[in-house]
Amino acid sequence: MQSLLSLKKYFIRYRKKLLWGIFFILASNVGTIYIPMLLKDSVNALTTNVNKDLLLRYGVLILITAIISGVFRFMIRQTIIVVSREIEYDMRQDFWQHLQKLPLRYFQNNSTGNIMAHITNDVNSVRMFLGPAVMYSIDTFVILIIVVSFMFSLDVRLTIYALIPLPLLSYLVYKVGKKIHLKYTRIQEKFSELTAKAQENFSGIRVIKSYVRENSEIAEFKKHSREYLNKNMDMIKIQSFFFPIMFLITGTSEIIVIWLGGINIMNGTLTLGEISAFIIYLGILTWPMIAFGWIINIIQQASASMKRLNSILNEKYEIQDNEKTDYSVKDVKGKIEFRNVSFRYNENLPYIFRDLNFTIKDGSTIAIVGNTGAGKSSLINLIPRMYDVTEGEILIDNQNVKTIPLDVLRKNIGLVPQETFLFSETLANNILYGTEDHDFSLVEKTSDISQINRDVENFPLKYETILGERGITLSGGQKQRTCLARALAINPNILILDDSFSAVDTHTEEEILTKLKEFMRNRTSIIISHRISTVKDSDKIYVLDNGTIAEEGTHDQLVLHGGIYADMYYKQLLEKELEELK
């Protein structure tokens, strides 16, 4: 229940509509409660004097009262239920905004399917609390107070006897509610696992088909689905016991009223109209008693879901603007300096590198090479602050990157990551993704540099061709060149290429690098590659090994030095010669 207190801000935001909703509940219930009183008077009157005028008068009064009550009932839904939908919208937006600001570290440690389960199933469970639970809670409380008051006005002793079974109902609701909360939490956790499994399968469908693992994945999904079904069945068993018991308890009250009320009529202490009204009031009271248990179910489920949502919403933003941010910085040029930089992903993990010190001159092109796992990608991810340094500092234009506004920093850095990602959008929209306008000339210009324009001529709708999920309709090389065009479209002052030509043939790569030289004139370029042919023309080359810069210099200097770089160069040279001999 404590977790639901975090919804307070939403209730405050829509308090006017909610107050109107409470007013409509009161007005509707007054009409509902007044009908049995009209019925009581009409029965008493008709037992002594039956005539059409009297029958018509009471019939019209009951009809008008019912219509007025119905109109107010409609207005309840137009306020409280509508508010619940508006709050649901706000919650999804807040949740989505929060997710967008979370660091990469969070998404590496949490599956996409699990996050999706939170934003769909859990938010919907909370909405059920915001709408139906809130509405029926107030409705039930108001009806309970008014009905019991009217019942006492008719016969105090009979009312007390009729209410005797109800404390047992409250105890039952309390005990069952705790079990429902626990079981619903487990259901939601299992649903997250099921969603994660489905998302993983959809993303890796090509691998599944390549290894003919369809039947295995079907069996695995069936296993997860069965576990999810079993957990739901466990809760349904409790609910199937819960609701009949509630009807039994409320039914017992009705039996008491009919028995004792009948005796009172025979004794002359109650009229037929009064006992009729009393039975109708008890019938009206039956729904609130049942609704009470239903509301408890919803509240318990919402509490479990909100607790899961809060576990994400309480995640801290590791990387964001703060009081040290210098908002006077509107642009960056490109001088980059690493000062005693050390980095590791978590405190319990080893350092990727320690005490790195080097400077990249503004407008220069440098390359970083090294064996797989040397930390090249980790290093360049520190520049746009995808991660923050563990120790030391990184400066751009002599200013610590932590003091540069995050938007300014990243808008001036064109990063082409090792793992390409394209959206299920048109090719043109993918290229212009990082820009504010949709200038088609920019698409043509960057496509020419990345050499994707040659392939576009064969696409059915040219640049308006819709790419499949994650760009599945493109080859590996086409994806890399499209991602390069996307990075160039933002007109960056710093361009970082993280092994961005691994799926491109060497001839195309040379053409791209030639055109890039012209585009990146007076801009800073950082190239990571395993191919010496890609980096050999760089102004300076850094060799990363065992978490340190083992070598640095130009291509010719490093070849003459005869170290790690020279060894890589000669091996690739030999591989090229062997390939030409085939």
Summarize the structure.
The chain is 65% helix and 10% strand. By secondary structure, the chain is an alpha/beta fold. Strands 6-7-8-3-9-10 form a six-stranded mixed β-sheet.
Please tell me about this protein's structure.
This protein has 582 residues and is of the alpha/beta class. It folds into 3 domains: 2-313, ABC transporter type 1, transmembrane domain (ABC transporter transmembrane region fold, Up-down Bundle); 324-412 and 493-503 and 524-582, Rossmann fold (3-Layer(aba) Sandwich); 422-491, Rossmann fold, CATH 3.40.50.300. It is 65% helix and 10% strand. The chain contains 20 helices and 10 strands. It has helices at residues 8-13, 15-48, 52-101, 104-109, 112-154, 156-163, 166-203, 205-210, 214-267, 272-313, 376-381, 406-411, 427-431, 440-450, 453-456, 476-489, 506-519, 532-535, 555-561, 564-581, and strands at 336-343, 353-360, 365-370, 391-396, 399-400, 413-416, 494-498, 524-528, 540-545, 548-553. The strands form 2 sheets. The chain has a 6-stranded mixed β-sheet with strand order 6-7-8-3-9-10. Strands 2-1-4-5 form a 4-stranded antiparallel β-sheet, with no helix packed on it. Helix 17 (506-519) links the parallel strand 7 (494-498) and strand 8. Helix 7 (166-203) runs antiparallel to helix 9 (214-267). It is elongated, with a radius of gyration of 36 Å. The protein starts with 7 loop residues before the first helix and ends with a helix.
The number of distinct helices, counting runs of at least 4 residues, comes to 20
CATH architecture field of the largest domain: Up-down Bundle
Overall tally of structural domains? 3
Instruction: Tell me the strand percentage band.
Output: 5-15%
Let me know the largest β-sheet: 6 strands, mixed
Runs with pLDDT <50, length 5+?
none
Q: What is the total tally of β strands?
A: 10
Rough outline: elongated
As laid out across the biggest beta sheet, the strand order is: 6-7-8-3-9-10
Radius of gyration of CA atoms, rounded to a whole number: 36 Å
In CATH, the homologous superfamily of the largest domain goes by the name ABC transporter type 1, transmembrane domain
- Between the first and last Cα atoms, what is the distance in angstroms? 72 Å
Helicity, as a percent range: 55-70%
What is the element string, with H for helices and E for strands?
HHHHHHHHHHEEEHEEHEHHHHEHEHEEHH
Structural class, by secondary structure, is alpha/beta
Kindly report the average pLDDT value: 79
CATH class of the largest domain: Mainly Alpha
> What fold name stands as the CATH topology of the largest domain?
ABC transporter transmembrane region fold
